[in-house]
Design brief:
- It contains 15 helices and 8 strands.
- It is an alpha/beta fold.
- The strands form 2 sheets. Strands 2-1-3-4 form a 4-stranded parallel β-sheet, sandwiched between helices. A 4-stranded parallel β-sheet has the order 6-5-7-8, with helices on both faces.
- The chain is 53% helix and 12% strand.
- It has helices spanning 3-12, 14-25, 39-44, 72-83, 99-111, 131-150, 156-182, 189-199, 204-224, 246-252, 266-269, 279-289, 302-313, 328-344, 360-373, and strands spanning 29-32, 48-51, 91-95, 116-120, 232-238, 255-261, 318-324, 348-353.
- The protein starts with a helix and ends with a helix.
Length: 374
């Protein structure tokens, strides 16, 4: 099985993969729903972190607990818990992010009968002098609480090893992104998105090895491939994206996604953890430095400036902003981001999406019209 086939199989059948991994390795399975979850601490406890993105099935059980205006990701994750399809989990971690995920945490605690439940109440304002100290204290408490829940001793040596593994993973994904930015034809957008999602599900030691192999293969391909200047280069931004189907539509219309600002994309590998000094402080430092999502605050225009910088650095012609339906944090952010894009002369297409996606013909028409404009 080649690397991309393995990644696709894991994304298509994540629960089967995780159950087999648990049976084979004996590791405890710890689920999470946000990229602010410190995977290093879970790994150092001898457990396996796995992110959940929603559901591919009809949502009906969750509707008795959540209003219809909750986003489909939150409703989908709850559906999977209530249905018992993820009953292999030994615990679930809920970082303090948007209101919907915080309420999902409460509902989960009261209604899901399997596994432990941990809240991770991270600071919201990250650009103050006390934010680092607060973040460190919260992560130290999480280390203690997780160790107690898993009956594991989380040592500094284990944390350092986990940090090195995750740093290697982040570096490899960054290299893949950068090679694709230079020549998007080296890997399709759908394959890149599949790779990143698989990275949040699969065994991290195996992942590190497979990513290093993928990087080597892409470097060899890049040496032989000529860059294609005919593609219209785009940056994607906005909320969580569950829909690799949009990438072929963009590519068939003559576009290429050369970077993104997703927590299931570039924000996942942004910033390494310092391998010097106290490991918990290093993890906290990364979460402080990382580009924020709308559930955190680090300056009124930090996200807008970051997206403008991505457009400039990757020679993109425009931005497609994916707004997940009923995602208030991103909806509140968008007007200021759009204003900054307009002032910088960067075209923006706002696309409101939900799971399932709107009709393919409707999306294809909007992509084609936007690409003609840019």
């Amino acid at each position: 099985m080649d690397g991309m086939t393995e990644f696709r199989t894991i994304v298509d059948q994540p629960y089967e993969y995780l159950q087999k991994l648990k049976n084979r390795s004996g590791k405890k399975m710890v689920g999470y729903v946000c990229s602010y979850t410190p995977e290093e601490i879970i790994l150092a406890a001898g457990a396996h972190p796995a992110r959940f993105f929603g559901t591919k099935r009809q949502i009906h059980l969750a509707d008795s607990h959540l209003q219809s205006y909750s986003c489909s990701v939150v409703r989908g994750v709850l559906e999977e818990g209530l249905s018992g399809r993820i009953g292999f989990l030994d615990g679930m971690v809920f970082p303090h992010t948007c209101d919907s995920i915080q309420r999902l945490s409460d509902i989960w605690r009261m209604n899901i009968p399997f596994g432990f439940h941990l809240d991770l109440v991270l600071p919201v304002k990250l650009n103050t002098s006390s934010a680092q100290d607060y973040m460190v204290d919260v992560l130290k408490k999480f280390r203690t609480d997780l160790g107690r829940a898993l009956k594991a001793d989380i040592t500094d040596d284990a944390l350092q090893k986990a940090i090195q593994t995750m740093n290697a993973i982040r570096q490899s994904i960054r290299e893949i992104y950068e090679m694709r930015s230079r020549n998007p034809r080296l890997m399709s957008g759908a394959d890149l998105y599949t790779l990143v999602r698989a990275a949040m599900i699969m065994d991290r030691e195996r992942l590190a090895s497979l990513l290093a192999q993928t990087v080597s293969e892409m470097k060899a391909g890049a040496a032989r491939a000529a860059e294609d200047g005919s593609l219209k280069r785009l940056v994607l931004a906005g909320g969580i994206c569950n829909h690799p189907d949009i990438y072929p539509m963009i590519e068939e219309a003559g576009g290429a996604v050369v970077w993104d600002d997703f927590c299931t994309g570039a924000r996942y590998f942004a910033e390494p953890v310092s391998e010097e000094g106290d490991p918990v402080s290093g993890i906290a430092g990364r979460l402080i430095r990382r580009v924020v999502c709308p559930a955190k605050h680090a300056g009124l225009d930090r996200r807008a400036r970051h997206i403008i910088r991505l457009v400039q650095e990757h020679n993109a012609r425009g931005v497609i902003f994916l707004l997940f339906k009923f995602c208030d944090p991103h909806a509140f952010d968008y007007p200021d981001i759009k204003k900054s894009m307009d002032e910088a002369g960067i075209p923006v297409l706002l696309l409101e999406i939900e799971d399932p996606l709107p009709g393919e013909g409707q999306l294809r028409t909007r992509f084609e019209a936007f690409l003609e404009m840019v």
